[in-house]
Amino acid sequence: MTEHKHEHKQSHEAMVQDMIHIMSQHGWRITEQRKKLAEIFAKADGYLSPKDVYDQMTVNYPNVSFDTVYRNLRLLSEMGALEQFYFMDGGLKFRASCTEHHHHHLICVNCEKTLTFDYCPMEQSLHLPGSFKIMNHRFEVYGVCEECQNPNAKS
Amino acid sequence: MTEHKHEHKQSHEAMVQDMIHIMSQHGWRITEQRKKLAEIFAKADGYLSPKDVYDQMTVNYPNVSFDTVYRNLRLLSEMGALEQFYFMDGGLKFRASCTEHHHHHLICVNCEKTLTFDYCPMEQSLHLPGSFKIMNHRFEVYGVCEECQNPNAKS
DNA sequence: GTAAATGCAAAGCGTTTGCACGCGG
DNA sequence: CCGCGTGCAAACGCTTTGCATTTAC
Fold first, then answer.
1. pLDDT of residue A5
2. Which of A5, A88, B50, B76 is placed for a possible disulfide with B81 were both Cys, Cβ 3.0 to 4.6 Å?
3. Considering only CA atoms, which residue is closest to the C1' of nucleotide D6?
4. How far off is chain A from B60, nearest CA to CA, in Å?
């Protein structure tokens, strides 16, 4: 119902359509499970573990299997619709890909809600040791989000 | 032999002694395997996976078991003698802890040799979104080290 | 109708645990 | 000589694979 627009974040509906479109483009069949998968990630404002996704899937498709979840998560990552990410504890999580621009993440260590920000340390005239050919980097900030700081947020 | 001096990196010998000292301090027994573990990490100039450590251990202790390696790696991490770290692929690795100062890492994606550097993006007046209470951060740069760039480095 | 996607079960991998023996203190 | 540390084996959690059935196209 709520038609949110000119934000840099597109509407849930549009995100779902985008992901479904990507899947068709790659010659994939649009199954109910994959539609649901797209919806789950469109709604989520943070990272989801395979288990999280599975749990949300089972609400509508009680007999979905774990391997279907994994299969589709991997396929969606490979084609860039999802970002996959190993958290500090080594756990694998996924989130809808922001393909628009380079950014980094501010992640709530409690609820794992994730905000993006544009500052990138690599844009500084960074003096690095050795003579490495730089390929890649990783920068994340971990903290407690406002809601999780607030005690009135009943557990 | 080499009397380590004002370098921030101490000699292998001293590192081994430090780690052994830490273990005694915590009431641990100094077994041959644990001595060897200390030597392995003193010699390594990058991160080692449990498998790497196991492989090096078996050279001298052919019937060492994987669980002993894991147990000691975990214990050494818990007491701060080792840093543990999940790589971008989610694989767990360990390296001798630099307890001296805050730093970040430049990691060779080929050989995983690791250099440390002092620049820290959090020291900038970093404008972050939301009102998170910052707890932690992670910053790593990945590249190819000079040796791995050089074709004359025979495989 | 045909090939792809699913669900089930079983295997795979990395890591942990329980227990009897061996060794450090 | 007491008890921690070890090695073996088995369990564990997470992820992947093989195969028959179901489903999208």
1. 40
2. B76
3. B68
4. 30
pLDDT at residue A7 in the model = 47
Span A70-91, pLDDT tens digits = 999 999 999 989 999 898 888 9
Place of tokens 């000691």: B72
Query: With an 8 Å Cβ cutoff, are A136 and B109 in contact?
Result: yes
Q: Which CATH architecture has domain A2-96?
A: Orthogonal Bundle (1.10)
Maximum alpha-carbon separation in chain A: 55
User: Domain boundaries in chain B?
Assistant: 2-96, 104-149
Task: Kindly give, in sequence order, each residue whose CB lies less than 8 Å from that of residue B47, ignoring residues fewer than 6 positions away.
Answer: B85, B87, B93, B94, B95, B107, B112, B114
B139 and B121 Cβ atoms separated by less than 8 Å: yes
- Strand A82-86 and strand A92-96: the pairing is antiparallel
List, for residues B69-91, the tens digit of each pLDDT value.
999 999 999 998 999 989 888 89
User: Nearest C-alpha of chain B: how many angstroms from A43?
Assistant: 19
- A8: helix, strand or coil: coil
Kindly state the tokens that stand for B82.
């080792």
Residue A99 has a pLDDT of 66
Report whether CATH 3.10.20.30 matches the domain A104-149: no
Q: How far are the Cα atoms of A76, B11, B37 from residue B3, in angstroms, in the given order?
A: 55, 7, 22
